[in-house]
Amino acid sequence: MNLRGKQKRFLRSQAHHLQPIFQIGKGGLNSAMVVQINEALEKRELIKVTLLQNTDEIAEDVAEALKADIHCDIVQIIGRVLVLFKPSSNEKYQKISKEVKVI
Questions:
Q1: Start and end of every CRM domain (predicted)?
Q2: Which of 5, 36, 37, 38 could cross-link 70 (Cys pair, CB 3.0–4.6 Å)?
Q3: What is the Cα–Cα distance from 82 to 47, expressed in whole angstroms?
Q4: Phi-psi map region of 55: left, alpha, beta (phi>0 left; psi -120 to 50 alpha)
């Protein structure tokens, strides 16, 4: 699913108040973290991920890897913070994705 400009703008406004729930450090992005990020996206649909100062990873590369692995949308990348969106497959968690579809 490719997000349109208005949809991304809406998601950015929703993500503005969120705290990052994952931090990628010097261990980099590993498969266990990818699984956890996928599970968090399933429950929340919209999350922030931070890259710490001590990591060798580049934000754009991490975003592309996550997009390929868990098929999420990259809403925005600011510095070392990624905002990720993935509609939940579970009906009861689909709060944000329903609003996005309307836009």
A1: 1-97
A2: 38
A3: 8
A4: beta
